[in-house]
Amino acid sequence: MDRVRAAAHPRSWHHGSVRLRTLIPVTAALGAAAAGYATVIERNWFALRRFSLPVLPPGSEPLRVLHISDAHLTPGRKRLMSWIRALDDLDPHLVVNTGDSIAHPEAVRPFLDSLGPLLDRPGVFVFGSNDLYGPKPGNPLRYLLPEGSRGRSARKVADLPWEKLRDGMLAAGWLDLNNQRGQLTVGGLDIAFGGVHDSHIYRDRYEQIAGPADPDADLRIAVLHSPEPRLLDRFAADGYDLLLAGHTHGGQLCLPVYGTLVTNCGIDRERARGLHRHPADGQAWLHVSAGLGTSPWAPARFACRPEASLLTLVPRDPA
Length: 319
Ligand SMILES: [Fe+2]
Description:
Helix content: 25-40%
Strand order of the largest sheet: 1-12-2-3-4-5
Strand content: 15-25%
Oligomer: single chain
Structural class: alpha/beta
Bound molecules: fe (ii) ion
């Protein structure tokens, strides 16, 4: 027996060693392949999501709303720029931009050029933190850390030209909804809007827009960057029919099947992207865009393709 054990031990050690010697390079190769895929392929593999939702008065014509978010544009991202520009082919009645459009001091002009013909259409916008504060190098895996453990920007002075970005969109007639209300007639429908600046950097001032959304409008749309539940609750309580947000990047680095790992704000993982209700069992519709881009310092997306969404609004069933 001892002889057997003595003989078996070096053999199993040998096998274990071989297994380990195989496992390390295989794991490293898989890791490198996944990183290459996430940074080169999926990051440029843009998806158009389509949803249809019954929020219009009975008898209305369908209304196409293009929701874009989180482009985080730097001047070199030509593929992203031409993909955004081609979204005009969808012939949307309305464009909603939920922020984080730029990630570079020279990105305003390229971003406005990317919008191109979309700027000739009715549009509304809010800002995200990244429209004001340029990206800083950091651990690219910080997206996987839970909310609250990463710290937030302590910077007080904006270093990106957000005024230029705002002025460019205002010049096209788009509505600035940062802590403001607004109204547009689009496709023959009166739409009441309410929006807030980014709660992720404590710039939201709901009290400035609080109160019931116009009950006489055909539709009430709330626009915000971060889908923070306390704000979504207020919009829903004030009677907004459709709540549009971005910010989460859908998690950006996701696990197949499991999905979003972190949401970067208070929203639950299950509603970090796509179309849901708010509250989860409530009346308002919530659409969270997983966004078009990434921070230049975390240039990867995995199991979470960059996206824009075309929301086709159709009539509710008659009560
Ligand atoms: Fe973002």
